[in-house]
Amino acid sequence: MPSSKSNFLLSSDLSNFQEMAISNEREPTEKSTASLIENNGYQDSVYINAAKIFQGIRNEKPQDKILVRYGNELVPSLPDFKDECSQRSSYELAFSALKYQDLLENILLDSCFYPCQSIPDELTSLIVVMLYDLQDRKFQARQISEEEESIPEVRDIERYLYSFKTKLAAALARCRIKHDALSIEYILPETLRKQEQRASALPLYAWINTLKSSLEDIYKELKKEGFTKVESVSDFEGYTYCLDKHCHDVLVFPASLKEEILNLELFTSYKLILQDKSRSLAVHSVKALLNMDDDIIVAHMGSRLTAAHMSVLSNQSTSKVFVCGVKSQAKEVELKELFTRMECGNIELLHEDFTDIKPTDQRLQKAKVILLLPRCSGLGVSNPIEFILNEHEDAGLLRDLSQGSVAENKLHILAERQLQELMHAMRFNKVQAIVYCTCSVYPEENDAVLNKALESGVEGSKAQPYRLSPSLWCNSEIEGPSDIFFKMEPSEISNCCFLAVLARQRDPAEVMSVQDILARAAAKGLLEGLDIGKSSKREEKRKKKSKVTQQRNVPKDTGVQTNIIEFLNREMINTNSEVSPIKAISGPQKNVNQTNSSIQRKKMTKPISNSSLPGMLKNTPNLSSMSKVFERRTHIRKPRAEDKMVVLKPVEIVLPPVMVPYFNPQGNKSQISAQHYYYRWIGVESSAPDLFIPSLSKKLVKPKETLPSTMVKHPRPWI
């Protein structure tokens, strides 16, 4: 054993890959319990826990091919993980030993280290994980701190391995020569080598907990810590970060700063949460489908961080996030403590598994969206350790990930389970949309599951059927060949992500009033600063007396009109469409005329009376003079018979009433006519897509009373 008594601490910047000597005078509380000393080994507890994990996930061979035997039990009274960092180190060591299990077993046999009569089979897993770490340290001795708690079994195995270091190194060299490999990494399959390369460069994604801090405050704190904001991942250099281009509340950091940022107060206080980007994409897809008071169902308990992110983006006072599958009392207490620290107050924990909950459960009658993150193969994940720890997935997935592929029979089992969960979600009659997300590269877990579920017809005859809907980022440059699914292939900047949105087809008999549409628009923030209060009874009686006419409307305030038209574009969807046209609301606004021409139309059963219009629309300022209205009508080209016409289903959409000024012969003061003009949108030829064609029948009715004197009057009505 080395004679040096110096303490070593994990460097805050792993990109340097250098040892840092720490003085003995430093307080023990400053020590990191991460245990990983670069090229100098781990703490004893990490070896024990790694051996326990390896014992549960190792590859078992047929009886006639077993040369190295593993016992059924490890040493008794295994210590628990001291912290998250030691837990991560244990999983990483176990996964590394699993990838090289065949190589390590051959080294033990070739060097005559195994079999050893003095070491029981129960400690074979400990031998394997410690052998991997020994060769990774180039068979150098481990530096041990005086304050470190020693475990006798670890120290005995370490001394025995070190006594065989020459034979073990020679056996390793012979294996490399046999495989013609410069290092043991080249012995792995090509898919695993590429995965390790991506994992080493994969950026870190962290979403902002806006319940505890704002985006501006996070920027200020990062600036105090020495971080600089850049435009994109390609600009990373040193202590830098950038804003994700898809999720407005997600920050991206370089992979080399992992240990540094995890020690920041922003992360320890849960203001920034480290999580894979695919989960944030799923959460934002759900957010785009919600109204103000809708509840959400998170179908799997393992996604605790996903449930917290969903809670942050939802309304804390009117919406609830139901998390299924919290069975044990200890797990419930643990989750409640976590959500309390994150200040998430609208999360409800359900003990039943999602598939065991009846669609008629009274607790879930307000739930409108289900977030379904089924257990998948996870082969699209470059860093499986972070994925398993953050999402609390089964460690058994590491067995398949260590081989770079999944057995066909296991893939079939996973796909069947995913199909059952998706079909169960479709049976909830009150639910209007389902967000389905996996990290798998196999179509059997993605497209095939969705197609089978849609063909099953499990919704029943009384409920509207589901249709695939374009995701929130359907126009993204990284989308796949289909514009329905959102796909990200594994790369050096992101893991794999498959995301699909299933929305119910709109009921043809459903008629949404103008007030309902504007109320939803206001809830989504499209009508900020505008009064949409109800009309007074006197105004309603007065407006009922006036007769509805139709006239052309040319608005000046295109900003408000654009917001209303874009919202109508999402609400008045075509009921005969195979896919519900749910569009992203975060993209740039289009021209008003282009937006008008793209609206899917639906005929209403009867015209909406003026009494149903909110006060905001009744106080719309005068838009143009009568002379300009008729002047533009004269320039409308009549459609020719030879023009190609697009057959559209006729629909009548009522626009706000237009107050047309007219000239008073008794003076130069203009008054506002109480005549209301309503326009009907009809399909026209492509040469004039931006024109409103008013109804040919019009009837002007002289108002019986004028508007209040507060209305703005035009001094020059002839203009």
Task: Determine the strand fraction and express it as a percent band.
Answer: 5-15%
Bin the helical content: 25-40%
Shape: elongated
Oligomer: single chain
Q: Tally the helices.
A: 23
Give a structural overview.
- This protein has 719 residues and is α/β, with parallel strands linked by helices.
- The N and C termini lie far apart (98 Å).
- The relative contact order is 0.07.
Which keywords apply here?
elongated, 19 strands, 719 residues, alpha/beta, 23 helices, 5-stranded mixed β-sheet, 10% strand, single chain, 8-stranded mixed β-sheet
Secondary-structure blueprint:
Elements: E1 7-8, E2 21-22, H1 44-57, H2 84-99, H3 101-110, H4 124-136, H5 152-163, H6 165-179, H7 190-201, E3 204-208, H8 215-224, E4 228-229, E5 240-243, E6 250-253, H9 258-262, H10 265-268, E7 272-274, H11 277-287, E8 295-298, H12 304-313, E9 321-323, H13 329-341, E10 347-349, E11 367-372, H14 384-391, H15 397-401, H16 408-426, E12 433-438, H17 447-456, E13 466-469, E14 486-488, E15 497-504, H18 514-523, H19 537-545, E16 548-549, H20 558-571, H21 592-597, H22 615-618, H23 626-634, E17 661-663, E18 670-672, E19 676-677
Parallel strand pairs: 4-5, 8-9, 8-11, 9-10, 11-12, 16-19
Antiparallel strand pairs: 1-2, 3-6, 3-7, 5-6, 12-15, 13-15, 14-15, 17-18
Helix pairs in contact: 1-2, 1-4, 2-4, 3-6, 4-5, 11-12, 16-17
